[in-house]
Amino acid sequence: MNWSMFEGLLNGVNKYSTAFGRIWLSLVFIFRLLVYVVAAERVWSDDHKDFDCNTRQPGCTNVCFDHFFPVSHIRLWALQLILVTCPSLLVIMHVAYREAKEQRLREAGGDGCRRIYPNPGKKRGGLWWTYLLSLLFKAGVDIVFLYIFYRFYRNYTLPRVVKCELRPCPNVVDCFISRPTEKNIFTLFMVATTCVCIVLSLVEATYLVGKRCHECLQDSGGDSRR
Fold it and tell me: Do the Cβ atoms of 43 and 186 come closer than 8 Å?
């Protein structure tokens, strides 16, 4: 990973975010991305290799593992992190589009021409909607993945022993998961940080809407006095 490029990307996201957005970004980077890269991948690296069943029937262990772990935690978290950070990139792209449009206008009409966007990074017009929709999309993605995790793994926890009776297993066999307690701790930690990120996104969306409504009321009050 090119960390200098990633650092520049984070600085760009921070530049156009509110205080709530900066807190959200810090949580995602420190408590989700770094935990995923540094620790979580290693915890789940042996999930298939050390999944043991008390049978030597060929194929039984693979079938049972596929049934109880249809999608790996690691792959789900990776997909979740990708989807939840993409909307922030859309905000940066929207600002870059505004800056490029302003630059083309200055090149065509000179520095004395009327500016379309005096402050391209200010959340007004289309950029306000882009930012608001990005918040709702991020919260929606996290909610959907919380539901997916709950459907696949009840109460977000893994049992120490699972009983499998799928073919080609000859009978009901006991299968043992590698390091279930450690995996449960990491899973609950990621679920907790996801819930905090959802709350922050919804609070920031409420703040943006409330601030915009307050500004509209002030503008309408000033027009009526005039």
Answer: yes
pTM, 2 dp: 0.82
Q: Which structure tokens are listed for 35?
A: 């935990």
DSSP codes joined into one string, 120-149: TTS--THHHHHHHHHHHHHHHHHHHHHHHH
Phi and psi dihedrals of 82, rounded to 5? -65, -50
Strand order in the sheet with 52-53: 52-53, 173-176, 161-164
- pLDDT in tens for each of the 226 residues of the chain? 444 555 555 666 677 778 888 888 888 888 888 888 777 777 777 777 778 888 888 888 888 888 888 888 888 888 888 888 888 888 888 777 777 777 777 667 666 566 666 666 677 777 888 888 989 999 999 999 999 988 888 888 888 888 888 888 888 888 888 888 888 888 899 899 999 999 999 999 999 888 888 877 876 665 555 5
Name the phi and psi angles at 133, rounded to 5. -65, -35
Which residues, including other chains, have CB under 8 Å from residue 159's CB and lie 6 or more apart? 177, 180
Q: Which residues of 139-149 are buried (b: 16+ CB within 10 A; e: fewer)?
A: bebbeebbeeb
The class level of CATH for 3-210 reads mainly alpha
3-class DSSP assignment, residue 37: helix
